[in-house]
Amino acid sequence: MDNNELKEITHEFLNIIPLFHRKIIKEHCKFSDEPFNHPHFQIMGILKSNGKSSISDVAKKLGISTPNMTKLLNKLISEEMITRNHSETDRRIIYIDLTEKGHTYLDKKYNELVSAIVNKFKDLSDDELKDLSSSIKTLNTVLSNLISK
Known about the structure:
The chain is mainly α. The protein has helices spanning 3-28, 38-50, 55-62, 66-78, 100-121, 126-148, and strands at 53-54, 82-86, 94-98.
């Protein structure tokens, strides 16, 4: 494949995320009313997936410096979504973890998002849904292959 075709694929790929956000998330989910922004959700999502983690590990996964995490974490702590505790073996290491309230909140938001997407997808024809399903499976496979390389 030549370089121009690769650039076109890259352009289309980069358009997916903002399009998805604008047409699905923003229009059909009421996240704008939330006290949290995208990085807050990312932090909670990482903790939900990985469990208790050090602040530095979460910061690395998000590409955020550890000092910049402080304000984000303070907001989540004040809303009782996460806890922050020092390691019992090394006081320099600080762990964060989702509280039960945080788990419940994320589950609720996830279910709202799924419901909004399902309602949006209901407008598609069976052929469009089959194409979408196939495309998503292909995208997952390709991205998984990229990550493993």
